[in-house]
Design goal:
- There is one protein chain.
- By secondary structure, the protein is mainly α.
- The chain has 10 helices and no strands.
- It is elongated and about 60 Å long.
- It starts with 16 loop residues before the first helix and ends in a 5-residue tail after the last helix.
- The N terminus is likely disordered.
C-alpha cells in the first residue's frame, strides 16, 4: 500500500506549524497501519528438549550395559553305581567270599542291561525323533545312521525281565545259564547293526558339517541327559555291550562253586 493511494499530498513550504505537526501524526498512524497489513517475515522456531537430571557432582549418568555371560553349565545326570552288597540286607553278606563275588558279577550283568535299555530309549527320544521333526536330515539318512537301534530294546528288556525273575527273596540270583543260552540267539540281530556302523559313522561325520545339525548336537551334548556323551557314543553302546558279554560271563563262571 502506497502513501499516494491514501491521498496524502506532500506539505508546502507555507504550511503552519500546527498543520505540520498534525500531518506528521497522521503519517505515523498510516505507517503503522501499513506495517500491520504487510506479511510477516519473521518465523518462529520451537525446540523441545527433555530436561536431564544431573548426577551428583554435576555429571550426567551414563547407561550401564551388562556384558553377555555364558550361562552356567547344566547339571549332569550321573548314574550312581551300586554294588550288589549295597542292595541287600547285611544278613546276605554271610555268604562265602566266592559267592559274594559271583553275585556282584551277576548284578553287574543285570545293571548293565538296565543302563543299556535306558540309553537306547534316550537315543530315539532325544536325537532321532527331534531331528526328524526338525527335518535336519531326511528319513533315509536318519535310518542309515541310527540303524535298527530301536529294535534292539525289546531283546534286552526280555533278558532283563528273565534275570529279575530268577532273583530270590535274599537278593541272590541263580541258574542264569539256561536263561542266557535261550537268549543268546537274539544276538544275531547285532550282525545287521554292527555291519552298518562304519557307514553310519561316516554319514554322521558328513552331516555334522551342516551348521544346523552341528548346533543341535552341541545343544544335546550340553544337556543333562547326555552325561557329556555325544550321539556316536550312544550309537556305539550296543556294540561295546556285545563285546562285554564274554568278559562278564567269564567273571561269573570264575566264582561258580561246584558241589
Amino acid at each position: 500500500m502506497s502513501v499516494h493511494s491514501l491521498n496524502i499530498a506532500p506539505h508546502s513550504q507555507h504550511e503552519l506549524p500546527s498543520e505540520k505537526k498534525s500531518k506528521r501524526r497522521s503519517m505515523a498512524k498510516m505507517s503503522s497501519f501499513v506495517n500491520m497489513l504487510s506479511p510477516a517475515t519473521t518465523k518462529r522456531t520451537f525446540s523441545f528438549k527433555a530436561p536431564s537430571t544431573p548426577a551428583a557432582g554435576g555429571h550426567t549418568p551414563q547407561r550401564q550395559i551388562t556384558p553377555y555371560k555364558k550361562p552356567k553349565p547344566a547339571s549332569i545326570d550321573r548314574r550312581t553305581s551300586k554294588l550288589w552288597s549295597d542292595t541287600v540286607d547285611q544278613a546276605a553278606l554271610s555268604f562265602s567270599s566266592n559267592e559274594i563275588k559271583r553275585q556282584e558279577a551277576i548284578h553287574e550283568l543285570v545293571q548293565g542291561e538296565v543302563d543299556l535299555i535306558e540309553d537306547l530309549r534316550s537315543v530315539h527320544k532325544h536325537y532321532y525323533y527331534p531331528m526328524k521333526k526338525l527335518k535336519l536330515m531326511t528319513e533315509k539318512e536318519l535310518d542309515s545312521i541310527f540303524g535298527i537301534v530301536e529294535r534292539l530294546v525289546p531283546f534286552h528288556e526280555d533278558l532283563l525281565s528273565n534275570l529279575k525273575a530268577l532273583r530270590k527273596a535274599d537278593g541272590t540270583i541263580d541258574g542264569i545259564g539256561e536263561t542266557l543260552s535261550k537268549w543268546v540267539p537274539n544276538l544275531r540281530h547285532y550282525e545287521t547293526y554292527c555291519a552298518n556302523q562304519v557307514f553310519a559313522k561316516g554319514l554322521l561325520d558328513t552331516k555334522k558339517t551342516d551348521k544346523k545339525v552341528d548346533d543341535f548336537l552341541t545343544r544335546c551334548l550340553e544337556s543333562p541327559f547326555s552325561r557329556k556323551l555325544d550321539l556316536w557314543n550312544f550309537l556305539d553302546l550296543p556294540r561295546s555291550r556285545l563285546v562285554k558279554y564274554p568278559i562278564l560271563l567269564k567273571q561269573i563262571y570264575k566264582y561258580v562253586s561246584f558241589y
